[in-house]
TrEMBL record:
GO molecular function: DNA-binding transcription factor activity; sequence-specific DNA binding
Origin species: Alteromonas lipolytica
Gene3D superfamilies per UniProt: Homeodomain-like (1.10.10.60), Regulatory protein AraC (2.60.120.280)
Alphabetical list of Pfam families matching this protein: AraC_binding, HTH_18
Keywords: Activator, DNA-binding, Transcription, Transcription regulation
Name under which the protein is recorded: HTH araC/xylS-type domain-containing protein
UniProt domain HTH araC/xylS-type: residue ranges: 189-287
Amino acid sequence: MSEGFPGQRLIVVPPAIVETAEKNPICAGLFPTHIGTFESVKGHYVKRGEGTPESIVIVCLAGVGVCRFNGGEWQLKPGHLIVIPANCPHSYEADHENPWTIFWFHVRGNMFVHYLNELQISAQDPIINIPNISGLMDAFEDVYQHTESGYTNTSLLCLSTSLAHFFGICKLYQRSIKASQQGVEKRIEKTVEVMKTSLHRLLTLDQLAEIAGWSPTHYAALFKNKMNVPPLEFFTRLKMQSACDKLKLTNEPIQNIAASLGYNDAFYFSRLFKRHNDLSPKNYRKAFSLISE
């Protein structure tokens, strides 16, 4: 394993400090034991015949590199994030002509698997694409800075929670590497944009499916898989969010608000609003209005 390259930053949290951190249930859930960067390094090559006790998260910011483990080989380009499982023999190296710039973490904790599940990362499909590189770098620096304050109880807690925030940023900006999945996301996003500009209408599942170019059944299944809610329920939530804003920010009559959102029956609108917000429109306005009497 070659080390000592220009542009390298490397933090190894002392084992005794890791042991102390893991007595805190938050840190025990997610904690970085190693943090580092390499900047455009030719000849950067690492091989570990028995892997590491922790999982390794590598993020490519520029250039190209290759990771090999579990019988597979994955090329990393800017915006790619890969996770090498704990105790897994592996190697990785920078491209000879266009060497990568990367940062990485060694990660342990009983919550880490849940973050991987959210990001849909597995040993068989270990790589994702996150095109917002500046957002990733900012989130990394947020983690790194907490290694420079001494290993106090507060800084250890901040190390854990800033790493959790990093994975939250990954989820926020994640895009699938597979072209077919990218196409799915674009079609779904197109229908979401139509919903946002059609709050005054009552769209049907058939209409949304036609915009996406799928059958209603196929569209509904793909939409729910991505958004965790059926399309028409998502559309209704957008309408209710708009209704909340109007109730808080205007004195517009409730009947007019209902009509502006495609509901000609104000009583039906009120029942629907209460189902989503646990308050009738009238009581919601009374509780949250920002308009002075």
